[in-house]
From TrEMBL:
Signal peptide start-end: none
Protein name: CoA transferase
Biased composition (Basic and acidic residues): 322-336
Keyword Iron among UniProt keywords: no
PANTHER family, sorted: SUCCINATE--HYDROXYMETHYLGLUTARATE COA-TRANSFERASE (PTHR48207:SF3)
Region annotated Disordered, chain positions: 322-393, 743-772
Length: 815
């Protein structure tokens, strides 16, 4: 039995976010009933490449997202149909809702009304800005939300001689869907909840790197200019390759790999990014002289992150994905599609069943639905179903759960952070020799007191956690870990597999210590396959999965998003963990969850391989243009930015012919804009260059605030391209309390981003404790294991535990 067998979800959403949320639930065994208006979900007719969808057929992306679901048709203008939908809700456990269909926007099916009528129902609402706040009804698209989030400029993506570029491929939609699924599962035992998810807030967490906390704590932004990562994605002799330097050691090793040991300067005042940019031409020349496979073999030997640059046409042929069986065949229409974003042992996920035709299950559900009965609804062969009334829940979903957090950097800690914010006791394990990598990337000089406690990134990812140091290279450190594991419900780690191999900690070992433990492993490329032990940072994951391919300008190499690969992995790992928790609740069994970063990335980039397999189309990057709106672009406005540059922009995305008419009116109906051929999206795509020129002339005479005020009031999706550290200036985030001030023993109180959804009922605040100091809870946790004060002191004297890193030793080039 899959973990969500018997769990029933009504899908009142349209578009990718809600569809992906309910797909993840269906993969876990939930019965998902998609309610559509008579004309069907618009996604049925969608193709990013513009492929012709025959009458009565469905677009391949819809088919992928709708696998294993039921489809019923209801016309909300018909009172009996509205009663039918309400009957479905009465017999369900959860409903996923977004605007966009006549059913969802019927007055009886607003989130608040559904939750009021069915208080035991979990209602998950997905909207651009949230259900509350001054922007709750404002127009938005994936593109304009990226601009508002700061994600377009947040990590310095793009080149200074052009407009910045957004992350291609609708990744924000998938992020919102993954967060919505996790929130729905987290709330399922609370006895009903209203979950109000903001896509703006999910983009802030997925596309920016705690910029507000960084700026407030250190007095400077993470990056203040656009510059390419070097080498990054570069042209080799026979194709593109991605080579990254995420740490100083990787830069030193890159110097050695390219035959330039003389570039290594451990005392340089420049960051490794600045040093790499200074040597860009020499590095690019070296890459051009080598074949892709030779570069990758050499980089792997030097432990330098690397990956091929995948797209829809080549990704299924990459050896690692072939060996791991990363792609499967759609059970209905036969195209290639990614497998699930996580794997489990024992197997918990349901094999995908064919997607439904429009209204395929309407009559069956009409026969089995009893409208108006709050306790009865959909029936099975055993008769009407009576919902279990759960016990009175704790305020926080994960209270009483203990998590051993053996993670570092961004991906792993972002998974365990959500557990900590929602009530779990999370023990973050580091060592003094190898503390969490985010402690080391703030640029604080080692001469500063307690410099390792002053990282905004570590603080942003680790509030509410406890801190324990253990030297796992020592026998005594491993022995203490063996004593700690039986006290923990969940163990999460995100090292390359060889690291845990070296200390002998696999799932069999964990089960020998605690048979019902759940272990979540988050390797970059998985636990097997030829890339198994390759170092994995966000940028190489994004390149290998195809996300980078769609980001950037068509006449230049792709840009690394340099962001989404990590938090996307974290939220998908959490979804896999929540299924494992439900399985253990039902069976008492422990579970291994393999949540490879690249598997999660393949799922949010699914459209590329699907479009190529189904239609023979290779999706291409197009700067700031995109498949869902025309015009869509960034336009320069008047004014000087905070760094003294003429670099102020607005994002505009016209997603419908009605919005175009509104834009034309807002511009004062200039003659060029009233041309009949521009009244349709097809005509506007043909004339996109003309529109860009004319609209750019109009925006150049106005400030960004003026443009937003004029166009947004007319209902046109528009946004300022925000510097990410200015997120606190957005009134919508203030109204929703997205940022919470967090005090700290070493640092001044600073704003910290919270979760991207609000739960009703509560909590009203997520951050309860600051991120732990290094080894802050050693005494508490080791005393709990039965150690005496003298034994703890001896462990510290022998550097098995500690509260500060050792003095810095000269870095050595490794081969």
């Amino acid at each position: 039995m899959p973990p969500l067998a018997g769990y029933r979800v009504i899908d009142l959403s349209t578009g990718i976010a809600g569809a992906y949320c309910t797909k993840l639930l269906a993969d876990g065994g939930a019965e998902v009933v998609k309610v559509e208006p008579p004309q069907g979900d618009p996604l049925r007719r969608w193709s990013a490449s513009g492929a012709d969808i025959a009458a009565g057929a469905d677009g391949a992306l819809f088919t992928f997202l709708a696998s294993s679901k039921h489809s019923v048709v209801a016309d909300p203008t018909d009172g009996s149909d509205a009663d039918f939908v309400d009957g479905l809700l009465a017999g369900a456990d959860a409903v996923v809702w977004s605007r966009g269909s006549d059913v969802a926007e019927h007055q009886r099916f607003s989130p608040a009304d559904m939750h009021g009528r069915h208080p035991r129902l979990t209602v998950t609402a997905i909207t651009p800005f949230g259900l509350t706040g001054p922007w709750r009804d404002r127009a938005a698209t994936e593109f304009t939300l990226q601009a508002w989030s700061g994600g377009i400029v947040g990590l310095g993506r793009g080149a200074a001689d052009r407009a910045p570029v957004y992350v291609g491929g609708q990744v924000g939609e998938y992020l919102a869907g993954a967060y919505a699924a996790a929130a729905t599962l987290a709330a399922q035992h609370r006895g009903g909840a209203l979950i109000d998810l903001s896509m703006l807030e999910t983009q802030i967490l997925g596309l920016t790197y705690y910029p507000v906390t960084f700026h407030e704590m250190l007095g400077r932004p993470w990056r203040d200019a656009r510059r390419l990562t070097v080498p990054g994605i570069a042209q080799a002799a026979n194709g593109l390759v991605d080579i990254g330097c995420g740490t100083a050691q990787q830069w030193f090793d890159l110097c050695a790999m390219t035959g330039h040991e003389e570039w290594i300067d451990e005392d340089s005042s420049l960051s490794i990014t600045q040093q790499a940019n200074e040597k860009a031409e020499e590095l690019y020349a070296w890459v051009r002289s080598q074949a892709v496979d030779d570069i990758r073999d050499l980089a792997t030997a030097f432990r330098i992150p690397n990956a091929p640059v995948a797209n829809g046409a080549n990704i299924t042929e990459l050896d690692h994905f072939r060996e791991r069986g990363s792609f499967t065949t759609d059970p209905r229409d036969g195209f290639d599609r990614p497998g699930p974003p996580y794997r489990t042992s024992p197997p918990l996920l349901s094999p995908p069943r064919p997607a439904p035709r429009l209204g395929e299950h309407t009559e069956a559900h009409r026969r089995n639905c009893i409208p108006g009965d709050q306790e009865r609804g959909l029936t099975t062969g055993n008769g009407p179903r009576k919902r279990e009334v759960p016990p009175v829940p704790a305020q926080l979903p994960f209270e009483g759960m203990r998590v051993l957090d053996m993670t570092t950097f961004w991906a792993g800690p972002s998974c365990t952070h959500m557990l900590a914010l929602l009530g779990a006791e999370v023990i973050h394990v580091e060592s003094t020799r190898h503390p969490d990598g985010t402690r080391l990337i703030a640029g604080i000089p080692a001469t500063e007191p307690q410099w390792w406690e002053r990282s905004p990134i570590f603080s942003g990812l680790n509030t509410n956690k406890k801190g324990l140091t253990l030297d796992l290279q020592s026998e005594r450190g491993r022995a203490l870990l063996d004593r700690l594991i039986p006290t923990c419900d969940v163990i999460v780690e995100n090292f390359t597999p060889r690291v845990l191999d070296q200390i002998g900690l696999d799932f069999a070992k964990v089960q020998s210590l605690r048979p019902d433990a759940i272990m979540v492993r988050m390797p970059g490329f998985g636990l097997d396959g030829p890339w198994r032990d390759n170092p994995a940072f966000a940028y190489v994951i994004e390149a290998a999965a195809g996300i980078s391919w769609l980001t950037g300008y068509p006449d230049r190499n792709p840009n690394e998003p340099y962001s989404v690969g990590d938090p996307n992995a974290g939220i998908h790992a959490l979804n896999g963990l929540l299924l494992a928790i439900e399985h253990r609740r039902r069976t008492g069994e422990g579970v291994l969850v393999e949540a490879a970063m690249v598997d999660a990335a393949l799922n949010v980039a699914a459209e590329q391989v699907i479009e190529y397999s189904a239609y023979g189309a290779v999706l291409q990057r197009a700067g700031n243009r995109g498949p869902t709106a025309a015009p869509q672009n960034l336009y320069r406005t008047s004014g000087i930015d905070e760094f003294g540059r003429e670099d102020c922009w607005v994002a505009v995305a016209v997603a419908s012919d009605e919005q175009w008419a509104s834009l034309v009116d807002a511009l004062g109906r200039p003659e060029w804009a009233t041309a009949p051929e521009l009244a349709t999206i097809t005509g506007r795509r043909v004339q996109h260059d003309l529109i860009d020129d004319r609209l750019g002339e109009w925006t150049a005479q106005r400030t960004a605030d003026d443009v937003v005020e004029t166009l947004w009031a007319a209902g046109v999706p528009v946004a300022k391209v925000m510097q990410p550290h200015r997120q606190t200036e957005l009134p919508q985030l203030t109204a929703r309390g997205f940022f919470e001030d967090v005090g700290h023993p070493v640092n001044d109180p600073t704003p910290h981003s919270a979760l991207p959804f609000r739960l009703s009922p509560g909590p009203q605040r997520f951050h309860r404790h600051p991120a732990p100091l290094l080894g802050q809870h050693n005494d508490e946790l080791l005393t709990e294991l039965g150690l005496s004060a003298a034994e703890i002191a001896e462990l510290e004297a022998d550097d098995v535990i500690g509260h500060a890193p050792p003095s810095h030793r000269p870095r050595k080039v490794t081969r």
